[in-house]
Specification:
By secondary structure, the chain is of the alpha+beta class. The protein has two domains: 86 residues; 110 residues, Immunoglobulin-like, CATH 2.60.40. Strands 4-1-7-8 form a four-stranded mixed β-sheet, with no helix packed on it.
Length: 202
């Protein structure tokens, strides 16, 4: 009986110690959680302290971007105003250059003469040529001429798909009225089966 009572007491002590150990094991993470909570709170405080600076930086960046947009808009308006002042509608003439659709001519340079005077000489980069091939139109010249008839000479330099040099000169006449004159020159190589340089109005 004494041994049985002793075993019962030992078992009770073992169970008690086991429960205590298990309780300690479960309690340990709680302490860690408290430390983690403290760290999280400290991080939140630091984040809260940094947030105002970040907001100020974002606000400043937005203001800079808005200012850039305003400056570009003002610059565009000034350019338009300057163009109106320099080239009044009564005397303004603008000449544009385009490549014939699907043409593989490598356009190197275009020269323009109005009434025997050289008014434009433009050399094309690879990017500009690519833009023309994709259907882009370039304004090569804008200036003033009196009302009436004027002679326009167009000189084109380039290379054909075969690598051969291509040079062509065409002579045109256009009539200037008391309104802006918009002229388009379409350039094509001989492989296109059409006139190398044609004159049209926009």
């Amino acid at each position: 009986m004494k041994r049985t009572a002793h075993l019962s007491v030992v078992r009770a002590l073992v169970l008690a110690l086991s429960f205590a150990a298990l309780s300690g094991l479960h309690a340990a993470p709680v302490q860690g959680d408290k430390k983690t909570e403290r760290k999280d709170k400290n991080t939140e405080r630091k984040g809260a302290d940094a947030n105002p600076d970040q907001r100020q930086m974002r606000d400043l960046d937005e203001q800079v971007q808005q200012t850039k947009s305003d400056v570009l808009s003002i610059a565009a308006e000034l350019n338009q105003l300057e163009e109106k002042l320099l080239y009044p509608s009564g005397t303004q003439v603008a000449i544009f250059v385009a490549l014939a659709k699907g043409d593989e001519l490598r356009l190197d340079a275009v020269r323009l003469q109005i009434d025997g005077q050289l008014v434009a000489h433009y050399i094309y980069s690879a990017k500009e040529l690519e833009a023309l091939r994709k259907g882009g139109v370039q304004r090569i010249y804008v200036g003033n001429v009196a009302t009436g008839d004027h002679k326009l000479n167009v000189l084109v330099d380039g290379k054909l798909k075969s690598g051969a040099d291509f040079n062509r000169t065409e002579h045109f006449t256009f009539h200037k009225e008391v309104k802006p004159k918009l002229v388009e020159l379409t350039v094509a190589g001989p492989d296109a089966g059409s006139t190398p340089i044609t004159l049209g109005e926009l």
